[in-house]
């Protein structure tokens, strides 16, 4: 049995990547590290100069952790994560046009040229201008893939000429090349290819325009005496039709030995076709599951780490899936297994009506549910107490609770969350939060703040599992919940991060005094003004401050503190500082955050810069340039946000009189630090020499030596 699970947006696409513009994406390739897409944060972004065009998908060299790209067909670029400007990285101009670069985990990058020539990257870099042979003459490469068979890199590519299709297999270490001709199919042609290798046999799958998938077997062991061009026979693997509907596939991937996923348009006679993602069982010739994609796609599909990647509208979407061992019972939807994934856990309450929610339940529930009338379903929801939750799926429980009273509703949800054995537990928690948020939207007076806070603090959640939670918290100005979400969610969009920042800066200090906020990130270093008297709350050497202990309960915190000329006092109260620290620690992409940051009101931008300057000075007071306490921002985070804020508002700040002194102090402080580190760099060599001499001397002897530092 196969199931499509939850999906989330990985990133937006520019105009050239939009659907319907003929561009799409060149490709999607795995990176050097394990899966990072769940974080939904770009780790790097590079671009070529205006007029240059990237003509080959960028790949990662898994051995060196370098990135390799080709622009303008012949110009090779190689760089690392720390490089920023591609103009300054390694460049080599090749003698022939490149079709594709394939990177193998243990075999290194392999370069395939448009003429059919193949070189490993190491050999190519020894002489970039070496002559590349033209093997395929007038043929055009349509697809290529590379594998490792033992220690042997194997490259396979398909070409087309005058309606005929050819397949080439090349073993690089043996320098052997075999050419095959694909058996023709009457009135149809291949649209897409994929392949895998097992037991010295390449299995080539071809998606044809006659709505069928064919399988071709190519043995790697070939006699050199055989004729140069053999004809490959194919066998029908799957017919893409179910009932009266036919799937017009555009691309596909292999999931396991019995399942393939196909992206295309599903059309029934007399109805408009709908783009969808489908999973098919090739063993039993059945459609296992499908997902409609109403915003349209580019027709491209990739699969890595049990995740599908495809464009949907103007975004790149990631969708998880699950495939189980193929059996006839699972293929026809009759498998009764308590461990079967609860598909209803991933139902979107905001887009499905009640009856649609019921239809989306597991197949073993569907026959009984369809036989019930709408009146029966309503009566079922009205008698929540009679339902046995242990026998129901998560989706059914949530549906039955929609009309329950607030007390019953929350009690049932707490019981549901206490069952650790529930399949797909994290997704179930996300559905619980979605149900709570939906009730908040339908009943504005209902807001279970403590319940939501408890869930976020005790469960490992993410923004993508409950995307409406922070929106409701922003609407309610629940700054404590927003603070916890910023600290715990790894995938918060930049738009939401900016919205939190704006709310934190706009709320008055007097209001924050009445709010419960986590102060662990500021309690050890922040300076607060008590009745115009400065009290430093930094931990003293013996852990006790008599003056602070005596006065803290008898004094009243002023509404707002102001920095002195040297920036010693914190410009905001402890509560606001703790909230701003949560923003500073959240992950973001500069390219996506900067446009939002430019909309920050000028007065709030100045206040935020004052606080960042205060933190910067505080960090510089310590030898290790680190703030004390837990969850305190690092100096790198502080400096990055200062640069972002100045980039977004520099022109405005130059014009504001109240920002003039702040910018001047910041400039002086940075200039002094640059000078200090410059002086340290001058004596770096002498200090290294001193360290080297100390290692060479006998530690038991005593001596005094004078070193002259020049």
SSE layout and pairing:
Blueprint: E1 2-12, E2 54-61, E3 66-71, E4 75-79, E5 90-93, E6 98-104, E7 108-113, E8 118-120, H1 121-126, E9 140-149, E10 152-161, E11 164-171, E12 176-182, E13 190-198, E14 201-208, E15 212-219, E16 229-232, E17 235-239, E18 241-242, E19 245-256, E20 259-268, E21 274-281, E22 286-292, E23 302-304, E24 307-312, E25 315-323, H2 328-331, H3 354-359, H4 363-370, H5 374-382, H6 394-400, H7 406-417, H8 425-442, H9 449-458, H10 469-476, H11 479-488, H12 494-506, H13 509-512, E26 527-530, E27 533-536, H14 546-551, H15 574-585, H16 590-597, H17 602-621, H18 635-655, H19 657-682, H20 684-696
Parallel strand pairs: 12-16
Antiparallel strand pairs: 1-25, 2-3, 3-4, 4-5, 6-7, 7-8, 9-10, 10-11, 11-12, 13-14, 14-15, 15-17, 18-19, 19-20, 20-21, 21-22, 23-24, 24-25, 26-27
Helix pairs in contact: 9-11, 11-15, 12-15, 12-16, 16-18, 17-18, 17-19
Question: What's the gist of this structure?
Answer:
One of its GO terms (molecular function) is RNA binding. This protein is an alpha+beta fold and 710 residues long.
Q: Can you put this structure into words, describing what you see?
A:
This protein has 710 residues and is of the alpha+beta class. The chain is 31% helix and 26% strand. It has a 5-stranded mixed β-sheet with strand order 9-10-11-12-16, with no helix packed on it. It has a 5-stranded antiparallel β-sheet with strand order 18-19-20-21-22, with no helix packed on it. A 4-stranded antiparallel β-sheet has the order 1-25-24-23, with no helix packed on it. α12 (494-506) runs parallel beside α16. The longest helix is centred in the C-terminal third of the chain and has 26 residues, at 657-682.
